């Protein structure tokens, strides 16, 4: 008897498997030092781990309220009042999500209709385009300008059409480490003024910002705030990416639309972890993650200078650094990253993976959110890479 498999529709145009799975898999296979996928290799604060255990042992193990635990939403509102001098209503403007990737997807789902266009700035986190397309919309990439990967605002303006429904932005930016200035926000505001365009502001690296730069959130912009979703991730702040918990801040009408979707996707988020995060946020004992990562960046950059890799612009935020291998090889970046993993035992991400058209400028991305010994061991191996 022959079995005819029902057809499986393509949900998005990205090919194959996400680069993070590919490179972390290759790192494991070749026992390489993994500076590819972005996650810390050092433990989270022991106090936070204890709070997770205590919450579960105390019996907080059933469904949380759909928008998130009130005490966690209140702790986030207090944190924003403290850090940004902003008043955010925890009941009508904050929703806890299973990570920021989910938050971005759900924000798109709550506003997009078939055929809508969404502008994004490339190179970009690789979930954006699939998330846009899975919602029936069309991704419109606009390239950032190397070497500092600033926004060419005229190009963004030129990309706007009557079908543009949203712009997704990311500061500090993955993978470039670029950070927006006040004037970038004003340029965006001028473009979307008097239009039906929403803004998705991916601010997961808000606290990983260096050299005295200050993060400005979209929620601080008086014009943009009312049309924006801002997405955050505790994973980046508390070094627990595996907990996959984040939150969405949006004005009440947009939060309503967001929850309309969220209630039938995840409904709610891990309860004991929400208790732990609320307690930890309130205790405010966490070591500032920005300072920790800045010293890692400084160490990594000073040592990378002793290898054949070249850095044009030191990263201003996030835990990533882009570097060129022009002195080493002419290989395409995907092949180079594979070669470096297999032959020299260091895994990285080829930057072409962050472009829809796989634009290849012979750049790779390092993640430096690692223990000093990991970074030094990687540098030792990178020093041994021969020049052309
Ligand atoms: N946006 C960007 C730019 C990221 O780099 C990440 C990292 N994974 C996320 C969103 C998603 O964060 P989460 O792990 O909370 O889904
Ligand atoms: N955001 C992380 C990075 O850019 C990884 C997230 C993921 O694995 N999907 O490395």
Strand content: 5-15%
The unreliable regions are none
Our Rg estimate from Cα atoms comes to: 21 Å
User: Which small molecules are bound?
Assistant: 4'-deoxy-4'-aminopyridoxal-5'-phosphate, glutamine
The CATH architecture assignment of the largest domain turns out to be: 3-Layer(aba) Sandwich
Q: Would you give the CATH topology of the largest domain? A: Aspartate Aminotransferase, domain 2
Query: What letter string, H or E per element, gives the SSE order?
Result: HEHHEHEHEHEHEEHEHHHEHEEEH
Report on the structure:
- By secondary structure, this protein is α/β, with parallel strands linked by helices.
- The protein has two domains: 19-44 and 288-383, Aspartate Aminotransferase, domain 1, CATH 3.90.1150; 47-283, Type I PLP-dependent aspartate aminotransferase-like (Major domain) (Aspartate Aminotransferase, domain 2, 3-Layer(aba) Sandwich).
- Helix content is 37%, strand content 14%.
- The protein is built from 13 helices and twelve strands.
- The protein has helices at 19-29, 46-57, 70-84, 100-111, 128-134, 153-159, 182-192, 234-237, 252-262, 271-283, 289-304, 333-344, 372-383, and strands at 33-34, 94-97, 117-122, 138-143, 164-170, 198-202, 228-233, 246-249, 320-324, 346-347, 349-350, 363-367.
- The strands form three sheets. Strands 2-8-7-6-5-3-4 form a seven-stranded mixed beta sheet, with helices on both faces.
- α11 (289-304) runs parallel beside α13 (372-383).
- The chain is globular, with a radius of gyration of 21 Å.
- It starts with 18 loop residues before the first helix and ends in a 5-residue tail after the last helix.
- It binds 4'-deoxy-4'-aminopyridoxal-5'-phosphate and glutamine (GLN).
- Residues 38, 99-101, 125, 170, 174, 202, 204, 233, 235, 241, 244, 246 line the site of 4'-deoxy-4'-aminopyridoxal-5'-phosphate.
- The site of glutamine has 5 residues, from loops.
